[in-house]
Specification:
The chain is of the alpha/beta class. It is built from nine helices and eight strands. It has one domain: Alpha-Beta Complex (Spore Coat Polysaccharide Biosynthesis Protein SpsA, Chain A), CATH 3.90.550. Strands 3-2-1-4-7-6-8-5 form an eight-stranded mixed beta sheet, sandwiched between helices. It is globular, with a radius of gyration of 17 Å. The model has no long low-confidence stretch (mean pLDDT 90).
Length: 235
């Protein structure tokens, strides 16, 4: 299938995301060619659902905790051959569709991630995010590493590997990237950058977040599962 004939579905998992959806969804609606937008909500108590329905008719609510569960549910609702999983607080550039279509024009590509930078970062946040993007790219020489804020997958291969592991409270994106890479190429889109709000870093502190990430990743590498038992959302 030619790249321009591929359709893209964007799955956005949410929980108490009213504040950020009003910034994220308008940018998705304006993308050209148009994308299918799917919002999967974990029973938010704010106006997340109301905001989402202003921009898409494909809004679903599911019970139970777990971002992997929400992503898997959204993937089952998707019509596109390419599924992009996007965090609710991530802003995308207008060139996103063309960059994704270009990458997936290669039939061997089964998944992709890209640069993730902060919206209006402080100096130390900017330094960290650029260094972290460098580490993610470097990891591709050994084992695909993925920033779950943006993850694009070929739909049929996603289901072939069983989707996200719903038993994992975090690092479900890294786990999926590794499994996908066994069936094709998992790539880093160097010419694409998305922007996230640094709320976790602002609330918990940079060193604490980095420490948690490192412990979880080392546990995942050596034990096959993260150290964290329950991932705490920051709102």
């Amino acid at each position: 299938m030619r790249a321009q004939s591929l359709r893209i579905s964007v799955v956005v998992p949410t929980l108490q995301e009213e504040k950020y959806l009003v910034k994220t969804l308008p940018k998705l609606v304006r993308l050209k060619p148009a994308v299918e937008i799917i919002v999967v909500d974990g029973l938010s108590g704010d106006r997340t659902i109301d905001v989402a329905r202003r921009f898409t008719s494909k809004v679903f609510q599911i019970g139970g905790r777990g971002i992997a569960k929400a992503k898997n549910y959204g993937a089952k609702q998707a019509d596109g051959e390419i599924i992009v999983f996007l965090d609710a607080d991530v802003n995308v550039p207008k060139e996103l569709v063309n960059e994704v279509l270009t990458v997936f024009s290669d039939s061997l590509v089964v998944g992709a991630t890209c640069n993730v930078l902060f919206v209006q970062p402080r100096f130390h946040e900017a330094v960290f995010s650029r260094f972290y993007n460098f580490l993610v790219q470097a990891s591709f020489w050994f084992k695909p590493h993925c920033q779950g804020k943006f993850l694009a997958v070929r739909r049929n291969v996603f289901f072939e590997v069983g989707g996200f592991d719903e038993s994992m409270p975090c690092l479900e994106d890294h786990d999926l990237a590794f499994r996908l890479s066994k069936l094709g190429r998992f790539v880093f889109i160097k010419d694409l950058t998305v922007y996230e709000f640094p709320r976790r870093f602002r609330r918990l502190g940079l060193l604490r977040v980095i420490g948690t990430w490192m412990m979880d990743y080392l546990s995942f590498v050596f034990r096959g599962k993260p150290r964290t038992k329950v991932w705490q959302p920051v709102r």
